[in-house]
Amino acid sequence: MDNNKTTTKIQELTYELKIDDVMCKNIETVSSKMPISQLRDVLYKKRISGVPVVNDDKLVGIVSIEDFIKCMEQEEMDALVEDKMTKNIKTLYADEPLVHAVKKFEKYGFGRFPVLSRKDKKLVGIITKSDIIKGILKKLESVYHDEEERRYRASHIFNDIVADEVFLKFQYFVEGKNFDKAGEASTGLKKTLYRLGLSPDIIRRAAISTYEAEINIVAYTDGGEIIAYIDPHQIKIIIIDKGPGIPDVEKALQPGFSTAPGWVRELGFGAGMGLPNIKKFTDKMTLRSTVEKGTHLEIIIKLSDYRNED
Amino acid sequence: MKLMEIEEILEAEVLTGEYDPEIEIEIGCSSDLMSEVLAYGEPCSILLTGLTNIQVINTANVADIKLVCFVMGKIPDEKIINLAKKNDITVFITKLTTFESCGRLYKNGLKSCSYFDLDK
Amino acid sequence: MNLKDIVKMLDLKVVSGDIDREVSAGYSSDLLSDVIANAQKDNIWITLQIHVNIVAVANLQELAGIILVNGRQPEQITLKKAEQENIPILLTELPTFEIVGKLYEMGIHGNSIN
Ligand SMILES: Nc1ncnc2c1ncn2[C@@H]1O[C@H](COP(=O)(O)OP(=O)(O)O)[C@@H](O)[C@H]1O
Ligand SMILES: [Mg+2]
Do B63 and B37 touch, CB atoms closer than 8 A? Predict the structure, then answer.
């Protein structure tokens, strides 16, 4: 019942939202006269798997990592982008409802569509499946403030909209020394994981680990960020800050070790159990730190059962 | 144990308005150190604590604790109550000490959390 | 109730101090400032703090003893100080909620607050 309601709400949103609301506007493009050999830098540096080809603001094609690999295999690295790109491309207009994008993804199975403005046919953005999901999640957040009671799950997004694998990325910024705001990132992430329909045990483990790491950023650093990557197999959470770093990582990982100042202890932390807790609740934990530079903590929680169908 | 029973046993005052009378509180936990609360392998359903800051609610939230009871008549400020409401966490206050509160609940049959099932 | 009987009935491990003394009531807290403000003479104190300061607090308040929960071991220096000051430190694997519950069932109650 609940799930039906959810699906309906999501379908509604795919009509209500415009492509312009969810697409990525900050786009990388290449010119058609660029040699394929230079494509590598663009794709790898930006971690994208395809890029629109634009001449004088006009979209003329799209070139992907597959095209690049093919050229590599056939030793055609000197070829120009225009010789290897896909020319006859499907596009969307920015003012179309999201549902058109959903249908096109289904029909063609492409990973992305360039988005044009209807007026002058200029390239204004690019849309991927994960943009759609993120857009809908964000909208759901503002539509329902206390939707937790409704217990609807957005897990159906994965079933209904997307066929291929999807990677979701969520990013949170954490202020240093601000205990009033500490916990906002982890509780925000928890809410998102809940909406994605992950199982309560997985959500709890991810939330507790992230929370301990967030508290450490607040307690010991001037700030940092938390980035969560979710795919059908695992949740990977990266927690980074810019210092002061940990002089002896081995020691910091020992239960009971703490350099927490008094104000941290008065708030109920600083018993040296944070990092051990994170270790307990995750499948993999990697802590790297350089004094004066900063700390990089990566944790992984495996998803044996991705979706929680009830 | 239902919330109403706990409210009576602890002579508590409810700060978060109406609660769901059907919620079942099964496991008790008491600590003033949030990392310890987080370390318990399974979610506890009530946390009794002498600490009254916003991190108690965040801890309850991430650890799936449904009921927080502040002891010794300590009154949390409004921000704390609002955050609890937003996250469906019920907040009680009691004049009793942690010791008296835990004792009464245990005697009335509330089970304890256990620390060591973590490693299983 | 005598601390000796409590130790026996709850199977506590005694690591310091003379346990032949009376217990008035129980106090449970992990905040030292709270214990200083609210614990009373001859209370048995339940905590997970293992820092040496717990001995000073127990001494100051003339507590009957300290029970460390969740299998926590006192720091070396805590132990040394407790021996010096004759403060009983007792260990249990149980968490606070449960050990307090068991003490309560034995008839040890909390201090009343006015
Ligand atoms: N991001 C960080 N930057 C600098 N130091 C850190 C960071 N995270 C942890 N530490 C160090 O590692 C110690 C142990 O951390 P943790 O296990 O979370 O326990 P606690 O926070 O209770 O001290 C901290 O006391 C601190 O010295
Ligand atoms: Mg910590």
Answer: yes
